[in-house]
């Protein structure tokens, strides 16, 4: 779908943003030339608020402390945050009997100080486990380790976390386990860890939206379809067992540049999955969106246009709610789409994980997020803002 948005000039964007927020230390240059704000919402936060939709990004405590322009942009644009790593098991757990909360505390306090909500990511994952995990955690003590971790962390932030990714990425169909479960370190020592984690999280913080979060469920290809089926079966089974779950997080690490297997196209199958999730009474969040451009030529205008079109198409599909149909703009303010929040995995290309994991072969920095490495809005910003505004 071609982008049909009137893009304000850089001066207009400066003016819109300056007029829309009271922040003095805006990251954008030439603020002195501010002009009256246009009718379009100049920030992602303003664009999404009319639909009671949260918009956010992942953040890094150390970067918030160090990079003033980054921090000003986060405050200016976002209404919900999630920690890129500081809430994970490894960073929180230096030893089997101790916790390190300084960075997580900083992020929760930062969000609250700036009127933003905070997501928790995550209690259980197969990555970034502490070095002591394999030697210390056994089938005999695994439940105690898991329950103690969740009770301590969720209890510390009780009532202050919008939603928790209780379990992250538990499905890996190629591992060949029943239900497509991933043969993860937790699965190996505690096969019932998913139910235990969600039950414990509910008791520790009844206020938080308990979320199952995963990736690779967005494309029209066979592998994505198989993973979606396994995720649906997982959450249906949890509901049948009376396990508390409130939402599904669709990570949305997606790509620009079509692939023959359809893994880089997003539409009917994803829309059907979202209808199925909604029919289970569950909410959804786009939890980690970015659009990698590694398949595209180096030319920046070409990449930016393609990435922005994926943002527009993907958000058209996911925010339109159950009435989505191919090719039809189905934005309607009166329909409650089950998507309650859209978060990108970072706000600026300057710090994207994609330059470290899955970088472009030509070594060019990725252009995958709403703001470029100079903190200036990319075409993807306008695509995201327009989709949020119209949704
Ligand atoms: O903090 C240490 C530092 O002390 C050390 O010197 C350095 C070198 O080893 O590592 C630093 O930790 C790194 C951490 O990011 C903080 O920068 C870890 O090695 C590195 O593995 C970790 O990568 C993160 C990854 O998750 C694993 O936690 C990425 O930044 C983060 O973007 C990525 O995010 C995941 C989501 O949580 C789940 N969905 C997929 C997504 C992308 O993989």
Question: Could you characterize the architecture of this molecule?
Answer:
This protein has 391 residues and is of the alpha/beta class. It has a single domain, classed as Glycosidases (TIM Barrel, Alpha-Beta Barrel). It is built from 14 helices and 9 strands. Helix 11 (222-240) packs parallel to helix 12 (268-279). The two termini are 16 Å apart. It binds ligand G3I. Residues 84-85, 88, 127-128, 168, 215, 251, 288, 353, 357 line the site of ligand G3I.
Question: Using DSSP, what is the number of strands?
Answer: 9
What's the helix-strand series?
Answer: HHEHHEHHEHHEHHEHEEHEHEH
Q: Report the portion of residues in β strands.
A: 5-15%
Number of helices: 14
CATH architecture: Alpha-Beta Barrel
Helix content: 25-40%
Spatial gap, N to C terminus: 16 Å
List low-pLDDT spans.
Answer: 1-6, 16-39, 329-335
